[in-house]
Amino acid sequence: MSILVFTMAKLAIAALFGLFLVPALAYDPRIVGGKTASAGQFPYQVALKRSGSFLCGGSIISSTFILTAAHCVVDGNNNAYAASLFTVVAGTTNYNSGGVSKTGKKVYVHESYGNFKNDIALIELSSALTFSSTIQPIALATSAPPTGASILISGWGRLSTSGSLPSQLQYNTLSAATTSACASSGVNYAGLLCLAHSSGHGACNGDSGGPAAYNGKIVGVANFVVGGCGSSYPDGYALVPYFYNWIVARVN
């Protein structure tokens, strides 16, 4: 069994709970089994680029802050890249066309990030976004979704490990899994939200940092998959309510 981090990265292998982390070798972004999003359907979704190349997803939580995954913004030694290397593209379903681009001003990585845990980060923008019908913040959830709740995920992640490259934002609906479902996949710790799905659905490379939403609020940040994209195992997301105080302390 393997754990696959969603970001576009060089090949690396690291043991965790008897499993292995294998970041992707190539870029081919789309959510597995997803549908194409329409303009303005996910106004909080952004694309994150580093040095001009697409890397991850993220969510607008204020006019100057983007919520994403820690592994999207750090190097192999878990040191944050310079904020100026990052560009956030908002207000479009095609990250290569349209929308508004903003550069990073400061990167905040959770101080306890490592070994998949506390995989959450913030990017402060160099200038504020102007809200519109296609650019809007999403509120932070303060409690975990109930087991079985329908959770909406979105991103430009792969269709499969070697799937085709879509130009448009994708979305899918997963289900909040039980703690035992997380444990059965070999990954279970505080601050983790597991999202269940049938085979052929779920998140994949390129979806990292992207949102999981419930009742119009963000409850999760895409972190990893277990057993490959579209496997029958739940996908791993950072549980936003668990990190609520950490996020608010920096945004405010």
Describe the structure.
The chain has 252 residues and is mostly beta strands. The protein has two domains: 45-137 and 245-249, Thrombin, subunit H (Beta Barrel), CATH 2.40.10.10; 138-241, Thrombin, subunit H. 6% of the residues lie in helices and 35% in strands. The protein has helices at residues 179-184, 244-251; strands at 3-5, 14-16, 19-21, 35-36, 45-50, 53-60, 65-68, 86-90, 100-109, 121-125, 139-140, 150-155, 170-176, 192-196, 211-214, 217-226, 235-239. The strands form three sheets. A six-stranded antiparallel beta barrel has the order 12-13-14-17-16-15. A hairpin with a 2-residue loop joins strand 5 and strand 6 (53-60). The longest helix is centred in the last third of the chain and has 8 residues, at 244-251. The protein is globular and about 45 Å long. The protein starts with a strand and ends with a helix.
The largest beta-sheet arranges its strands as 12-13-14-17-16-15
Within the CATH hierarchy, at the fold level, what is the topology of the largest domain?
Answer: Thrombin, subunit H
Poorly predicted regions: 7-30
Q: β content, as a range?
A: 25-35%
DSSP helix fraction: under 10%
Mean pLDDT: 84
CATH architecture of the largest domain: Beta Barrel
**Record field, number of beta strands:** 17
Helix-strand makeup class: mainly beta
What is the radius of gyration? Answer: 16 Å
Name the CATH superfamily classification of the largest domain: Trypsin-like serine proteases
Backbone shape: globular
**What string, H for helix and E for strand, traces the elements in order?**
EEEEEEEEEEEEEHEEEEH
Distance between the termini: 41 Å
Q: What is the CATH class designation of the largest domain?
A: Mainly Beta
Total helical segments: 2
Q: How can the largest sheet be summarized?
A: 6 strands, antiparallel, barrel
Tell me the domain tally. Answer: 2
